[in-house]
Design brief:
single chain, alpha/beta, Rossmann fold, 4 domains, six-stranded mixed β-sheet, four-stranded parallel β-sheet
């Protein structure tokens, strides 16, 4: 495991390119380097090996090249751009004496470091155990606090079998905890079913948390590093006096470990409830199309790809004007800068129109003695016109549908427009 220490660990990144015809733009190497940097370590050298898909893994000459480089710089670790199975790891360890880390393990370490709430800690631990299970060997150091005693271990059971049983037991325990958390979250979501809900999604470090803070004054942790926030945060802001729930979800990354997606399914449940998805994209990246594709692929896996989506191309202050104009050619495409507060007027103007399209425009008469209803109109609705009569006021208003239902239930005179 990579850890933040007083001594910064230094290592080598190895990019296994299984598409030799692909023009290398170094984005994969940059991403691995950023992941390592985010856990407080440093990449000092990098190697790229082009391997056809039909070949299972690196050959002897390539492994020796890694070995020589690791020895020459006294590397603390070697990190690979792809996930490694047990056979791959054992092959590498014959040549390399330092730590061998694959992409999945690196992401899990970063998630573990950034998990802050009880829910995210449980989710990360479950994903770590799912990762560990198929990689156990007889050399595995058995789990601490292993239960013992008569009737626990079967006849002839090996240490490996015992450790696997311990892990499955722990996974089952964590699944139970996550189910309980999901029940509570589901009840919380039911209580706000009548409110408009928008979910922020996007590649990690696209600027979702910065945008969230700008829109809602949420004070969500916002840092220029990968996966600085893991927990779904939901805050309120108002459009036309209507409450809008805005949720910031965990960032995505290509080859996101399937176990991690499964573990975070309860956190990502906010997407299922969303009426609108805002897909935040880092416009300063050279691999925008790939990052958009990765995010949409994960949304497809979660079954929410058909929901209405708006694309928010963030960080336009970092690119030239010609490129900015490319991001506003299509409907529901917005060029913005959360940091510099640019391009937001059109976004929120269009959001007003969208909210109006989902709301009820009505004319309603409120007698003067019903100050409680007048208060609700001004706190939850948007008054377009009012006509004062002898015994009350006619209001032409835009209101959320839950307030419309309330007026109907109370047999108030109203007329839809």
């Amino acid at each position: 495991m990579l850890r933040k220490n007083t001594k910064i660990e230094r290592g080598i990144s190895v990019l296994v390119n299984r598409r030799p015809n692909k023009v290398e733009d170094n984005s994969d190497l940059e991403e691995i380097s950023n992941l390592v940097s985010s856990v407080g370590c440093e990449i000092v050298e990098s190697l790229i090996f082009n391997i056809p898909n039909k070949r299972p893994f690196l050959g002897k000459g390539q492994l020796e090249k890694i070995q020589n480089l690791a020895n020459s710089i006294k590397a603390d670790f070697v990190v690979f751009s792809e996930s490694l199975n047990l056979r791959n790891i054992l092959s590498i360890e014959k040549y390399v004496s330092c730590k061998v880390i694959d992409r999945t393990k690196l992401i899990l370490d970063l998630f573990s470091q950034n998990a802050r709430t009880a829910e995210s800690k449980i989710q990360v631990e479950r994903a770590q155990l799912s990762y560990t299970l198929p990689r156990l060997t007889r050399m595995w150091t058995h789990l601490s606090r292993q239960s013992g005693g008569i009737g626990v271990r079967g006849p002839g059971e090996t240490q490996l079998e015992s450790d696997k049983r311990q892990i499955w037991k722990r996974i089952s325990f964590l699944d139970g905890k996550l189910k309980n958390i999901e029940k509570l979250s589901s009840e919380r979501r039911k209580s706000r079913k009548d409110l408009v809900k928008i979910a922020l999604v996007g590649y990690t470090n696209a600027g979702k948390s910065t945008f969230m803070n700008l829109a809602t004054s949420a004070n969500v942790l916002s840092e220029d590093r990968l996966f600085s926030t893991l927990d779904s945060t939901t805050k309120v802001f108002k459009i036309l006096n209507q409450k809008i729930l805005l949720s910031d979800t965990v960032g995505f990354i290509k080859n996101l470990p399937p176990g991690l997606v499964a573990s975070f399914r309860s956190t990502l449940a906010e997407l299922n409830e969303a009426d609108l998805i805002w897909h935040v994209v880092d416009s300063s990246r050279c691999d925008i199309e790939e990052q958009v594709h990765v995010t949409n692929e994960i949304l497809g896996d979660l079954g929410v790809l058909e929901k209405e989506r708006w694309y928010l191309f963030n960080k336009i202050d970092l690119i030239e004007e010609r490129r900015r104009n490319e991001f506003i050619k299509k409907e529901n495409y917005y060029a913005i800068s959360s940091m510099k507060k640019k391009g937001l007027k059109k976004l929120f103007s269009d959001l007003e129109k969208w909210v109006i399209s989902r709301s009820a425009k009505i004319k309603i008469f409120i007698p003067f003695n019903r100050q409680d209803l007048i208060s609700q109109i001004y706190s939850q609705g948007h008054v377009l016109k009012e006509q004062v009569k002898q015994d009350g006021v006619f209001y032409t208003i835009i209101i959320p549908k839950n307030l419309l239902n309330y007026f109907k239930e109370n047999d108030l005179a109203l007329e839809k427009k």
